[in-house]
Amino acid sequence: MKIFNFIPIPDPIKNTSSVASLKERLDWGEPALTIVDVRDSSAFNAIHIMGAVSIPMNELVARAIANLELIRDIYVYGETNEQTAAAAFNLRAAGYKNVAELLDGLAAWKAIGYPTEGFSAIT
């Protein structure tokens, strides 16, 4: 009898998410998600979560509507949990159904040692 070791399927997206939950989805190979960094462009260029896209708060809803389908799973983070919550609120108000606030954002991601990109990530 052969026993298979399957990688467990990650939980569906929730309104809030830990960085570990996001990393689990990424490691599983979940392609149907977008990580959105709502900090300003200079902060994003300095360092951000690997694979994240930069959409500053003042452009968030317009650019999301132009580029992301309403059923897309979106993980959003900002400078603070308050900015993250505001971004998630704005996306949900625009009709996005699957938005997760990434708790403690980049700081939590870096604290665990997950991969980052940007000028500060290289040094």
UniProtKB/TrEMBL annotation:
This is Rhodanese. It comes from Chroogloeocystis siderophila 5.2 s.c.1. Gene3D superfamilies: Rhodanese-like domain. InterPro entries: GlpE_sulfurtransferase, Rhodanese-like_dom, Rhodanese-like_dom_sf. Residues 29-118 form the Rhodanese domain. It holds the Pfam family Rhodanese.
